[in-house]
Amino acid sequence: MLITSMKKLLSITLTGVTALFLSACAAVTNSQAGKNTIAKLPEPLKSQFQAISRQQEELGKQYTAGTRKMLEAYALIADSVGLKVQAAKLRAESQALNSGSSLEDSRKAFSKSSSIIKEVQSKISKSNGVTVASKETFTAGVRAKNEAYITEATLAANASIVAAKGIQAIKSASMMEKAVLTTSLDPLFYFSKDIPRFLAQEREFDTACQKYALDYQIKLPKVSLPTPKINVAF
Description:
Elements lengths: L5 H8 L5 H9 L3 H9 L5 H36 L3 H13 L6 H23 L9 H36 L4 H10 L1 H30 L19
């Protein structure tokens, strides 16, 4: 079921906003401040958003793991076609992420790597004249990339379900509560909106990888990369 879009929700909640109202939004940029605010909510909102907060933290850990895996996969693919400098940068960003990394850490690592990822994708897509340095490394990179894809596709679908629950719960909140709670859902909106966009590009890149493999007689495993089902409309 499609849920009211985030933009519509925000337009409603921000109508007639005061400076105090906006300061409440800013408060939840700090994770602990957000938890403290949620703890003061009336029931059943408090229990609902405490559960959502726990689910969101778990999804954040999955995102970090998926991002680490994806960056390492691109490092392998870059290595396989001789892009050694790019591979080293991607590997450094990947290895900097761990179980203690925050969502912000993961997003920064991916953002810093996005131009290199595009460079690798372009190199593979223009397969004519691109010499493969290691078929084994290329195969390992594509396999790791597909594993990371499944992790992030599952994450995006699950995040949209949790976001939909949060949006539904917010409907019964006061105006001040709406400001705080809507902002607290920002990571879920990111998972549900931005990750699917990247995954759409990944499906296109997988087609390029398959063509590249065919051109250089590399055996790649046949893997179906599903489009995640998103339960929130943007």
